[in-house]
Design a protein that fits this description.
Mean pLDDT: 94
Bound molecules: adenosine-5'-diphosphate, aspartic acid, magnesium ion
Distance between the termini: 29 Å
Radius of gyration: 23 Å
CATH topology of the largest domain: Carbamate kinase
Oligomer: single chain
Number of helices: 11
Number of strands: 20
CATH superfamily of the largest domain: Acetylglutamate kinase-like
Low-confidence stretches: none
CATH architecture of the largest domain: 3-Layer(aba) Sandwich
Shape: globular
Length: 408
């Protein structure tokens, strides 16, 4: 008998019929004698619908209230799934984040989990109940509802698996595992049997929305055995493994990620003096804007162009900040582009092999795709390109690294 945390994403609970199928899956595991804790997302499209409603009512949405609003989506599915389980003769009880005391900090819309009270869950499990928990939400020490950021139900599931010391955490979704790239963009993408934790962390942080990055971080920190599987199709899915040795035969590149949420800003003609980077980026940080890539190049006239990328949602705000500091810094102009994307190749094999970057750049050049920015780390190379090239760039790189031929 094992203890599993099962998480079902939006599409998997997107209709009454699908909720019934999810209930059947849980009942099957219970009938085999396993203990199951369930985490659910809101029905597909629901969180977006709620965001739209909020935006229609308030220009700058109040963080406390948006969390109250968004948390309702998961509350609907947790109750419906509990009812479906009960109707099938399976003992079940639903809980919101605050009922189960998923304690978070006060950072609304992207709160971090600080602690989870496991006593209610353990008591339920001991009595043969399936606790069904609303994902994506928590509560602060003073009782205010918080949410964990988009895709946050993954993190709820992994955090619960860590707290309860579960045997495995299963993320059930609308694909049957982690693929070499998003199968919606490249139909030739291949499912990976295994992916190293480090690669998964890079994939998630570089835009692969199949797992929320915080969920992967949590899994790594607490050594949670994590698997991504299909809600609809039988199979073993993809195991996130911590053991690089077992992946020795793995290809150089395991995956390609893309991120459409980027925007680029450039301050031109900045005097090349010590402290200039800090003078540009401090006001950006003070405006609570996170920076991703940075490029600074010294031109012959001792002036420099300073370019960086931010989340597209922060583009207008960042532009304003640069306009305000432009004169004090003695810079020429602010230029921006919010029609860019970041495409990245990821693989632990990169550590020990040369020539990966040149293969990447040549493949893109052969398709006439202009690279606007580049950044690298030990196991990834990212490029920024015009958003119109997103699909072409992903498919070109998938073919260049022969990812369609991976035997998983
Ligand atoms: P859920 O609602 O179940 O949480 P998500 O939409 O958050 O599902 O995540 C699943 C989706 O992630 C897939 O439908 C797929 O389009 C996308 N995705 C992006 N990159 C990958 C990848 N490398 N492997 C698998 N799916 C990916
Ligand atoms: N419902 C939330 C979202 O759409 C959380 C999740 O699905 O994980 O982002
Ligand atoms: Mg998700």
């Amino acid at each position: 008998m094992a203890l599993y945390v099962y998480k079902f994403g939006g599409t998997s609970v997107g209709s009454v019929d699908r909720i019934q199928k999810v209930a059947d899956k849980i009942k099957q595991a219970r009938d085999l004698g396993h203990q199951i804790v369930v985490v659910v997302s809101a029905m597909s499209g629901e969180t977006n619908r709620l965001v739209d409603l909020a935006n229609a009512v308030q220009t700058e949405v109040n963080p406390r209230e948006i969390d109250v609003l968004l948390s309702t989506g998961e509350q609907v599915t947790m109750a419906l799934l509990s009812m479906a389980l009960q109707a099938k003769g399976c003992l079940a009880r639903s809980y919101t984040g605050s009922q189960i005391k998923i304690l978070t900090d006060e950072n609304h819309t992207k709160a971090r989990i600080e602690a989870i009270d496991k006593h209610i869950l353990q008591a339920d499990l001991a009595q043969g109940y399936v606790p069904v928990i609303a994902g994506f939400q928590g509560v602060t020490a003073n009782g205010t509802i918080t949410t964990l950021g988009r895709g946050g139900s993954d993190t709820t599931a992994v955090a619960l698996a860590a707290t309860l010391n579960a045997d495995e955490c299963h993320i059930y979704t609308d694909v049957d595992g982690v693929y070499t790239t998003d199968p919606r963009i490249e139909p030739k993408a291949r499912r990976l049997d295994k992916i190293t934790f480090e690669e998964m962390l890079e994939m998630a942080s570089l835009g692969s929305k199949v797992l929320q990055i915080r969920a992967v971080e949590f899994a790594g920190k607490y050594n949670v055995a994590l698997r991504v599987l299909s809600s609809f199709k039988a199979g073993n899915g993809t195991l996130i493994t911590y053991d690089e040795e077992s992946n020795m035969e793995a290809p150089l590149i395991s995956g390609i990620a893309h991120n459409r949420d980027e925007a680029k800003l450039t301050l031109t003609g900045v005097p090349d003096l010590p402290g200039i980077a800090s003078k540009i980026l401090s006001p950006i940080a003070d405006a609570n804007i996170e920076i991703d890539m940075i490029i600074q190049n010294v031109a012959s006239d001792k002036n420099t162009d300073f370019t960086f990328t931010v989340h597209r949602n922060d583009y207008a705000k960042a532009f304003k900040v640069l306009e305000q500091i432009k004169h004090d810094l003695g810079a020429k102009a602010v230029i921006g582009d919010d029609k860019i994307v970041k495409v990245s190749i990821i693989g632990v094999g990169m550590r020990s092999h040369a020539g990966i970057a040149s293969t990447m750049f040549k493949a893109l050049a052969d398709e006439n795709i202009n690279i606007e920015m580049i950044s690298t780390s030990e196991i990834k190379i990212s490029v920024v390109v015009d958003e119109k090239y997103l699909e072409l760039a992903v498919r070109t790189l998938h073919a260049a690294f022969k990812l369609d031929q991976i035997n998983s």
